Amino acid sequence: MTEPPKCPSQDKFLKEEQENIEAEKHNRKQKERNVTTQSHRERERQRHRQREKQAPCTGSPTWDSFLGLQDRTLGQRQAPNRRATQGSLKFLNQVSVNEIKQFLSHILERRKLIKVIYQRENAVGKKKIQRKLRIKGIQNKDLSKRNKTHLRNQAKKNFTDEGDQLFKTGIKILQQSKSQKQKAEAYVFFAKAADMGNLKAMEKMADALLFGNFGMQNITAAIQLYESLAKEGSYTAQNALGFLSSYGIGMEYNQAKALIYYTFGSAGGSMMSQMILGYRYLSGINVLQNCEVALNHYKKVADYIADKLEKSEGIPVEKVRLTERPENLSSNSEILDWDIYQYYKFLAERGDVQIQVSLGQLHLIGRKGLDQDYYKALYYFLKAAKAGSANAMAFIGKMYLEGNAAAPQNNATAFKYFSMAANKGNAIGLHGLGLLYFYGKGVPVNYAEALKYFQKAAEKGWPNAQFQLGFMYYSGSGVWKDYKLAFKYFYLASQSGQPLAIYYLAEMYATGTGVLRSCRTAVELYKGVCELGHWAEKFLTAYFAYKDGDIDSSLVQYALLAEMGYEVAQSNSAFILESKKAKILEKEKMYPMALLLWNRAAIQGNAFARVKIGDYHYYGYGTKKDYQTAATHYSIAADKYHSAQAMFNLAYMYEHGLGIAKDIHLARRLYDMAAQTSPDAHIPVFFALMKLETVHLLRDILFFNQFTMRWKWMKLDNTLGPYWDLFVIGLIIVVLIFLLRNRYG
User: Fold this and answer.
1) Could you read off the pLDDT of 64-99 as tens digits, one per residue?
2) Which of 344, 389, 348, 387 is CA-nearest to residue 369?
3) Which stretch of 278-292, 549-563, 673-687 has the lowest confidence by average pLDDT?
4) What residues have CB less than 8 Å from 186, skipping those under 6 apart?
5) 180 Cβ partners below 8 Å, 6+ apart?
6) Torsion angle, CA of 161/162/164/168, rounded to 10 degrees?
7) Per residue in 367-419, pLDDT tens?
8) Closest by alpha carbon to 536, among 305, 359, 693, 277?
9) Are 201 and 216 in contact (CB under 8 A)?
């Protein structure tokens, strides 16, 4: 077989073909960078066809169409194609047609091989292109996503900043507000801030919905807010959900879940959760009783309160007992009635110095239900000071020492007024001068002078001076440390309720400093300090809600305070539940919950609560009837607290042998003791003794036979019922009234 003839320009032709292949590769790479559209490719094909028609003898365009190399762009391939076409035309003019056919067959075989290679390269190239496009798409997508995220974060930041600003505005209004209308305006800002996602504002709104601030109580909505806040880690929400779970208000009654919520709340920094856990471990409520754990929880809260007290004097909290008589409740000494306040103002304007000083004190710290008003306080103190009141002078000095809106901080002015009061032998003035020398305010620090003034004021019985003396000996400020003397002065001050003195006493008992360590005593003292926290302000709002007829709002607030261990709140909550006026709990749950709260209050020393527990067991309220348990509680109240009501109830049980052995003589004795203990018991005791003596007289006269007597008593019980003796008392009263009317009529 002969080889195909070699054309003189074959090498040149192959070289040109190789250039075309290289150009095709170049075009393919260029296409990866700039992907053309389908319409562009279609135009290119049409131009190829036109060139083929114009030059049918040329080789390159025909091969290009045969190989299917359509992906090249027109601008990239026109120059090499023209050169190839011109070379092919010269070549055809020099060789015969047969030589061209033979050469063509050789080239076609070669092209087939090249086509296979190209197909493989195309497959790999397409995968690379797809991969690159995919990477580009992901990168573009990521870039777009990052841009969107940045814009979203920026918008969120602006949104958050606006929410924070609205919340701060609401807080400022709330702190400066004196009327309910102004406070309501603050909650409008809280609502707007909450809509913008401000967590603190959401907490404020949730609290308002729970406690019914401004009449907008909605416990279901409050729970939804708290649950969403709890997911964000809000310790306020954790504490609230624990409280609601512990009472079953709007949620399932679940003490275990409540304990979990309280634990998370305390871990997050909730002082209220810490206090609740402290009380639970102290009393063993759903946990094992553990004094040391209770001490740890109470100490954290007490440290927080003591720090606040050192910066400013604590505001005493008025704790009104709803269990008092209605006539006493309406004129309760804890809350100053508006009419009485107006009368006091009238007397103050008339020049009553004592009333002027009293009103100044009430406005200075905001007591008896009055708002804190420094301007009014200074006004009344100045009027009294002009009249020569040493107390008023000392309080003016105190105002200038601490500084406020009405009396800006001024040590010189404070020294002046304290000196005026001290010259009159006033204990508050002496104590004020001691403070100036102790802290070096307006005068050089002089512990000796401070000690002298504190001792003089302490001798006059001023508790703050007694505390300062105790602190000097405790810390060794200007004197040798003496824990015995420190304990003595702390104890004296604590007897007057000085909160920091109580705190330092607790510290000494907790660490065994200067005194034998006692965990129980330390916990009780810490508990007293903790109860001075700002949350105790709910006593006033709960009381006013009760007076206004908003029973549900009052109950929720008292119940939260009861959960924190406030004995007054426990008895008030039980009292409201007992009345069955609340709507937030099912009626069948009210008596059992009330019994639980009465029991907690009784453990803390409430005699009335102890009698109530006896009543619940006697009548079967919230528990089964149990005369023996009732008699036990009545006995505790009578022996430990000398309760006249408990003595009377116990006497009745001895008289009838209910739960205890019948003893007429002991019944008479208890009736007499009840009358001696309380003047209010005289009339009930009189009628009870009259009935007792009458029944026994009838027994001695008519029922001399023991068998007949027993049969007659049984017949009376069956005929008139077990309370026939009450009918006898009623009959005696009617007869007495009839005789008295006939005598004096």
Assistant:
1) 333 333 333 334 434 444 444 444 434 334 444 444
2) 344
3) 673-687
4) 170, 171, 173, 174, 177
5) 214
6) 140
7) 776 777 888 889 989 989 998 899 999 999 999 998 888 889 999 999 999 99
8) 305
9) no
How far lies 37's CA from each of 41, 134, 552, in Å? 7, 18, 74
* Residue-by-residue DSSP string for 646-669: HHHHHHHHHHHTSSS---HHHHHH
Token pair of 698, please?
A: 């009838």
Give the max Cα distance, the chain.
167
Report the sign of the C-alpha dihedral through residues 704, 706, 711, 717, in that order: positive
CB-based contact 421:394 (threshold 8 Å) = yes
Running DSSP on this structure, what letter comes out for residue 444?
-
As a whole number of angstroms, the distance between CA 294 and CA 489 comes to: 27
Is residue 122 within 8 Å of 116, Cβ to Cβ?
no
Count CB neighbours of 157 within 10 A: 10
Tens digits of residue pLDDT in 464-500:
999 999 999 999 998 999 999 999 999 999 999 899 9
Q: What angle do the packed helices 567-579 and 587-603 form, to 10 degrees? A: 150
Residue 735 amino acid letter: V
Nearest Cα to 199, choosing from 232, 161, 240, 224?
232
Length of the chain: 745
Burial class (CB in 10 A: 0-12, 13-18, 19+), 544: middle
